[in-house]
Amino acid sequence: MAGVTINNLRKSYGDVEVMHGIDLQIDDGEFVVFVGPSGCGKSTLLRMIAGLEDVTSGTVSIGDQVVNYVAPSKRGVAMVFQTYALYPHMSVYKNMSFGLKQQKTPAAEIDERVRAAAEILQITDYLDRSPRNLSGGQRQRVAIGRAIVRDPEVFLFDEPLSNLDASLRVQTRLEIARLHERLGTTMIYVTHDQVEAMTLADKIVVLRDGVIEQVGSPIELYTNPANQFVASFIGSPKMNFFASNDLVTDTPTTHITGIRPEHLILSAKDEAVVSGKLELIEQLGEYALAYLVSGTGTEFTAKMEVPPSTSIGQTLHFSAKPNTTHFFDAESTVRVMN
Amino acid sequence: MTDKQILEWKNRFAVAGAWLVAILFFFPIFWMVLTSFKTELQAIAIPPLLVFEPTLDNYTLIQERTDYTQYAWSSVVTSLGGTALAMLIAIPSAYAMAFSPTRRTKDILLWMLSTKMLPAVGVLLPIYLLSQKLGLLDTKIVLVVIYALINLPIIMMILFNYFREIPKEILEASRMDGTSTWNEITQIVMPLAWGGIASTALLSVVLCWNEAFWAINLTSSEAGTLAALVASFSSPEGLFWSKLSAVATLACAPIVVFGWLCQKQLVQGLTFGAVK
Fold first, then answer.
1. Which listed residue, of A38, A327, A332, B25, carries a Cα 20 to 30 Å from A248's Cα?
2. pTM, whole model, 2 decimals?
3. Which residue segments constitute the domains of chain A, with CATH numbers given?
């Protein structure tokens, strides 16, 4: 097992730099999730660790070894692709054993390792089938099995759940979490889904435009986002942002105030921080989402246990739960202490 | 007329049109085969004869005058040899172009294909002289090399398109598995593109078999192919229609049967892998 150290890593395509000096320490056995919007460089970063993309400058180290010029198969990493990338012309067994065969592992050992991995993932019954005859979820398990068989020091997952339907995604997410629990191996996981990031990660790395915006535990990012981008990206539904003139209370005009939908409490007018006209209610059973527009035209969302009895078009008043309000500098968007 | 009747008539017209085109294409072949069983007099009779007493004289005469099997063997060797050589060059090249493309890859492919737009006669003289100096005139080797080269651009283009349909992630997965380039080509790319490779090879065999220009100009009695044999019946001895038809039928027959057997693969190859 090994950790991963990334030092001042840069990546350019021609004259265009897409990764701008990434520094990151991933500890041995840690589950790290790279998260960010499309095009933020999270997949590129993962592929550079895998060895599928060249490093323009800086270093990637796995354990104590700098691996910039080491072939992907010699880095001790295994990757699970979004599209599964199974070999369609080979049976599940052959898919899982292919890598070991390339490394000229003895047949008996290959068999043992394939069966052990199949046991963990409960795919023993499918070993003779072709990937074509498997469902999406089963295919993804085979892809994970192919990675396990190689007994890597670091697992790399590139949006592994994106091609699965919603219920299967939740189930497979749990399985990956269990797998990490069981193997204790370092895992790096790329996703654009902040729910996956929050539920799986020991440590989340939020990326934007080839720069790390913040690194921290899920709860750290939720309670102490470093800037407005992280605040808006982590948490669902998104955090509401208000300019000073949206609010009833006095805040400096240089600040943007952030309050999460779940921290807005329906209150009397004289206690309110913000008021808005009700536009729409989404009733989700467990809770309801109220979509509102403030007097100055800012849209915001409130999460409520009970939907308001007010009809559409009426004005509602909200206060914020204590110590949950965030302030950001209007210009730099960096968080300023409360 | 009701809408239904209009639709029915439209369908009838479409079917009739299709038949017309089919007959237009098939008729020359039908007439060639028919003429090959006529005497020379019957062949030039006006009005043309549809009913007559068939004769095999033309075929016996051809067998007496020339060695059909030698020409046929030449066709087989040059077609298969040319195709094999072309595939040997094209598979690794198309692999490189499909999976490690540069900004110029498309230009290179187009440039290669543009050589097919030149008239072959433009390079006849240098190629003839080269073959002569190398002592390759009237050998199967020269045709194998020429056939491989003239079909290479098309083969490359088709294979390139087939290879590009292989998801990049599969090759990346194999790289993560530590596959060597050779194993990657033979164990991943070739099995996945097998249908495409086979149909491309079939197409190439057909193109080589039907090639006449180079066969006529570079070979004669020793390495002449069936195309050269047919040509030899047309010019020096005047136009003997029934004999010409008989030899042309003999030249076409093997490749028509071959093409018929491999119809499905051929169509796949000709659609350039556009439809899966």
1. A332
2. 0.80
3. 4-233 (3.40.50.300), 240-336 (2.40.50.140)
